[in-house]
Structures are given as structure tokens and as C-alpha cells.
Prior knowledge:
The protein has 236 residues and is of the alpha/beta class. 33% of the residues lie in helices and 31% in strands. The relative contact order is 0.10.
Amino acid sequence: MRLAIVDDESVYRTHVAELINSVYGTEDVSCYLYSDGSELIKSFENGFKLDAIFLDIEMKDVDGMTAAKKIREYTKDVPIVFLTSHTELAMDGYEVEAFRFLSKPVNEVKLRETLKDLEKKLKVDEKIVLHKDGEEIVNSVSDLIYVEASNNSVRFCFKRDNVELRMKFTDAVSMVDGVSSDFCKIHRSYYVNLAHVKKLSATEAILDNGETLPVARSASAEAKKSLLGFIRRNSR
């Protein structure tokens, strides 16, 4: 793996690099150290490819959150692990699809857990296969934003396109549940990927593709509980 470690304090970025190298060894992982967010951004501008980024939030020059927003202009896929002692910043990190939050100084056990989950994400990107007109349409389940019931059909809304099939909504939900546990029913007609929810209220969900979906009163409490659970699972 090619990992970036970005921190304006050398003691912290060196510490994280040493922990990572103790897990993998230098033959299986390459750690690239940056002292601020501007250095990281410049590497992306030059076309440098990384598998994941460990990014300090509080830096004097270009802070981590600003750097992450800029990185997301180049790629939506690279996992970003924020390093911080302020867990209240979790919702801000959620806007840039943060993969994890690790407290500083980084705990070795928590880091090992994060690295293990990174391996799973990088090596096993679950696919959802839809059959339409005699063809198989394959997409990453992480790209599926929501599923919508529409009369006798179901619309699968992905990041780049939509696929509409004649099938039962309950069957579509079961199909998604078979490959991911990150979806939640917010309305009788909508099954949403929690990874794409930017804001959630008692009446609506705002998604990262700019759409706003209704939240049913009967589903509001469970939707909030599911979203908080998702954030906790992904902010260890």
C-alpha cells in the first residue's frame, strides 16, 4: 500500500509511520510523509497516486479539512483517516467521506484495526449486479446512493447513472442487504446508503449528490439511530 501521513509535527507523523511499518514492513507498504496539507494537494496536482491518507485536522498552514475537500475534487475514492483529539469534528469529516477518525497520539491497537479495515476496503469492493435486457450491469455497492420504489419498478440511483428495473421494492432491499449493511429505509419508497447522507432531519435527508429525499415520520427515529451507528462504526 502507498500511504500518505500528513502532520505538521514531525514527532506525530514519524510515530504513525513507524507503527505502520511495524505492522507490514517496508516491503509491503510505502509511507510518504508530508508536513502540511499544501504538500499533499500539490502531489495530487502532479498526478501522484495513493491508496489511503492519514491526515491531521489541525495544522497551521493548510488544515486537514481544507486539504481533504481539495483532495475530493481529484478523487472520491481514496480513504481518508483523520488524526485528531476532537471527536466533535466527526460530522465535518463526514462531509468529505472520512473513512476513520483516530485520536492523537495514535493508539497501536486502533491503528491495526484501521489498517485491517483499509485492506478490506481496498481489496474487496463489493459489487451489485443488476440484470436488464439480457445484460449484467455491474456497479460498486459504495456507488449506490439510494433505491427508489416507482410504481411497479425500482430505480437504482448510482453516482454516475440510474438503472430502472421491474421488480418488487422488497426484493431490491433484500438484494442490497446481501452485499452491504450500510443502508437504511427512510421512507416506504426510499432505501438510502448512509455513506451518502450529508444531513438528516426529522423530515428530510440531504444527499451528497445534491438531492433531498423525504423522511417518513414513522422512520425518523430509526433513521437517526442508524446514521449515528454508521458514524460510530466508521470513526473508530
